[in-house]
UniProtKB/TrEMBL annotation:
It comes from the Bacteria. InterPro entries: DUF4058 (IPR025132). Pfam families: DUF4058 (PF13267). This is DUF4058 domain-containing protein.
Length: 245
């Protein structure tokens, strides 16, 4: 996983491209018994989270990159100052459903997390959706390729890994399989559970990422001289960048 894709300039497009690529990879393996449906989850958050959804906010980016100001005594002024107030904003996030073609029952949901799923109001809304799935007979595959944000609670706590993929099979809950990995690791291939009479399909996320990275030409646009997105530090990414160069 390339950490620079976590930047707001790239994430929204990358997220949509990855979900679509997973669908294209799964369809020929699941026909004719299953349908792979790309759907959109629509929810509302305040505009403070738009930058986390991959919609850059120049004022927020500047605030993160400017040096910390020296504390001074506040001065009264008769002139107004432009401020930002929270306003409702509709968000759309694509995800996949694997449906039984005969009954249209959703067998498996596959989610690729976005930054807003892991913080603030967006996190609360995603958790409600997640709990609804975990309380049903539907399997869940949850792909988290974002270091930023708070990982979801599970035991034992493996939050120290940079990334993780959760495979939650309905009959085995509350137990689930967690694939934890770091930036320099090859992303593990994971099983996509289906109906009780069918074998899992193996999903190779690393292969898809490599194909997308080449097809979409990210190397032409990413400036590796710039500071990496938070919370990454340039020093800890040096081994990864040396390996990729």
């Amino acid at each position: 996983m390339n950490p620079y894709l976590e930047q707001p300039d790239y994430w929204s497009d990358f997220h949509n491209q990855l979900v679509a690529a997973i669908a294209r990879r799964l369809v020929p393996q699941l026909l004719p018994k299953y349908r792979v449906v790309t759907d959109k989850w629509v929810y509302t958050v305040t505009d403070a989270l738009t930058v986390a959804m991959g919609r850059p906010d120049v004022s927020i980016q500047q605030r993160q990159t400017n040096p910390t100001p020296i504390a001074t005594t506040p001065k009264a002024t008769g002139h107004p100052v432009k401020v930002r107030v929270p306003v409702p904003m509709e968000m759309q996030q694509s995800y996949l459903e694997v449906k039984d073609a005969a009954t249209q029952i959703v067998v498996t949901v596959l989610e690729v997390l976005s930054p807003a799923n892991k913080r603030g109001e967006g996190r609360s809304k995603y958790m409600a959706k997640r709990q609804q799935i975990l309380g049903s007979q539907t399997h869940l595959v949850e792909i988290d390729l974002l270091r930023a944000g708070q990982p979801f609670l599970m035991e034992p706590d493996v939050a120290q890994s940079h990334y993780r993929i959760l495979v939650s099979r309905a009959p085995q809950r509350p137990l689930a399989d967690l694939y934890a990995f770091n930036v320099s690791d090859v992303i593990p291939a994971v099983p996509l559970p289906l109906g009780p009479e069918d074998e899992d399909v193996l999903l190779n996320v690393q292969s898809l990422l490599s194909e997308l990275y080449e097809q979409l030409g990210y190397d032409y646009f990413i400036d590796y001289e710039q500071a990496p997105p938070m919370p990454w530090l340039a020093a800890e990414l040096q081994p990864y960048l040396s390996k990729e160069s």
